[in-house]
Amino acid sequence: MRIAFVFDDTLDVHDGVQQHIVTLGRELARRGHHVEYLVGESEHSPMPDTHSLSKNVMVSFNGNRMRVPVASSRAQIRRTLHEGNYDILHVQAPYSPLLAGRVLALAPQTAGVVATYHIAPTSMAAYYGGKALGMINQRTHRRIDEVVAVSPVAASYARHTAHVESRVIANPVDVQAYVAARAQAGAACIAQFHGEGPHVVFVGRFVSRKGAGILLEALDWGERQGIFPPGMHVTLAGAGPLLEECRATAARLRTPVAFPGFVNERDKPALLASADAAVFPSTGGESFGIVLVEAIAAGARVVLAGDNPGYRSTLRDDDDALFTIDPQRRAGELARSIARALTDAPWAASMHERQAELLARYDVRTVADEVEAVYAQAIADRRQ
């Protein structure tokens, strides 16, 4: 098949949706399909056959910084569609009427169209913004043949904003690549990240909803209760506007806390592999938990996550791995979970085994099988 992923944002950064379509596109290309990308303003795409079709501006929406199109050329879109002669247009949703919406309006009737919904709203403003966008895109949305969502929470968003039902197909993670990256890094590199004593790891952006501050609250609570094992140390990796505030908070703790900054994709598997407890305290806005699956694939001993709907569905309702995001109770509950992960070896081993069993469900090879079936149905829909 000739497949084009359609995405309003850029491929220049490594955020969740970008990671989704790059990971899936590489697997589809490995299977012999021809894959291209019709995207917003991109200058350093990691993928060949990328068509940058708009000028973009940065905005804040749903707790994220994202780039939205402000100008795209109908003539350029029409020419790209003609030259591409695509069997499938795979649109990432919700989408802008100024780029993906124009692609849909100009799409040839022979091309099957699939939309994948990725979003979990963080506020009523985001929810009502999605409903307004659904109304604006009502006409072009009729051109979509099959609808997918990456999780039940994303499916709910699609239902309430675009009034469409969808099938759930998880975000893909290249599990074999993560296992290989851990092996390539080697025991010495992992040991260097691990250091002496039990190691707790957070990887993410330093923004409020990702929860680095919640982890620091839990460290303070656990120190005051004296529940952490001797030698425990913590790494908080990432960048963002709250980094310096978190550094200042950590400086008041007895527990050693390292801030290595942004960790690239080459080094991330080894850092996650070094974790006795990988902790992701996000309070919401997560349609899925790619980083949870990455940590499991890398070999983190235990993964602990904030009990938001996206993370809960990714971890298949494993209450042992989830802790409350209620501000009144989260510090104590997370601190106790960390302490148990580091001191109760049978409990940690049981959780590690359960979490490893999740990998087959989220591996890109499994996901690509499901996506190919959706593509075949979309093409069949066009031929009816």
TrEMBL record:
- Annotated keywords: Glycosyltransferase, Transferase
A Gene Ontology molecular-function term? glycosyltransferase activity
Glycosyl transferase family domain: residues covered: 195-354
Keyword Metal-binding attached = no
* Glycosyltransferase subfamily 4-like N-terminal domain mapped to chain residues: 15-176
Query: InterPro entries from the entry?
Result: Glyco_trans_1 (IPR001296), Glyco_trans_4-like_N (IPR028098), Glycosyltransferase_grp1 (IPR050194)
Pfam families reported for this sequence: Glyco_transf_4, Glycos_transf_1
Q: Which GO terms describe its biological process?
A: carbohydrate derivative biosynthetic process
Task: Tell me the protein's name.
Answer: Glycosyltransferase family 1 protein
Q: Which organism is it from?
A: Bifidobacterium tibiigranuli
Q: What is the lineage of its organism?
A: Bacteria, Bacillati, Actinomycetota, Actinomycetes, Bifidobacteriales
